[in-house]
Amino acid sequence: MNKKHTEAESLLLVQSGIFALEKRFLQGEMNLQDIKSIVPCYLHLNNANTVAVEYIDPDISRDFPISPEDVEADGMAALKKLCHPLDFMNLTQTVPSCLENSDPYSTISIFERLRQRLEGDIEYNLYFTIFRLINQDQCLGVTLPTHNMNNMANKISGILDDYEFLKTNFQRFASLTKREKKILSLLAGGKNNPGISEELFISRRTVENHRKSIIKKLELKNFAHLIQFAKAFDLV
Which has the minimum average pLDDT: 70-74, 100-104, 123-127, 231-235? Predict the structure, then answer.
């Protein structure tokens, strides 16, 4: 029987589940179609600097009024054709700056109204898209309809059985700043405070303050627990 989640719980479960699947994709353990076989969604690759569409999976052409030919001809025009005008402005202005200032371990989530192939009088429906950098110039987008977010959360909750630690600790990890994630990575790699201070050009006191913040946010018990976080979230 499906559990009824609050909207916030559903969003968190979906985000953590997509993070786990993207982790497998980036590690070469699955391809884009493998992700779609697990979670019904729309997959696309976007330019990290402009959000222009660079690849769409076949289902997007079936359900939305853009084609691979549109994407190949002009990825920005294809995106504009798909999005509500206000959401197009938000995407192109907000997402690139967020990606530029994020780290490779972060996801960026956004609600957007997308134009569908006409269904009665409804021109746009609301969707939820999660972006994650896969290299310096490109990000992977996973788009899901919002109307069945609770069902999606239940499905993803099952998927995450093998990622219990990730599911339980995703919100804690997401609370770390970009600098704290970097220091966590260096600590897991064997660096001590003086070494981190030298590599990041910050004072040892600043390093120690970051360490205290990391320990508090992640509720770390010992160094083995720190390593567990670093491995689960691809920091080592």
Answer: 100-104
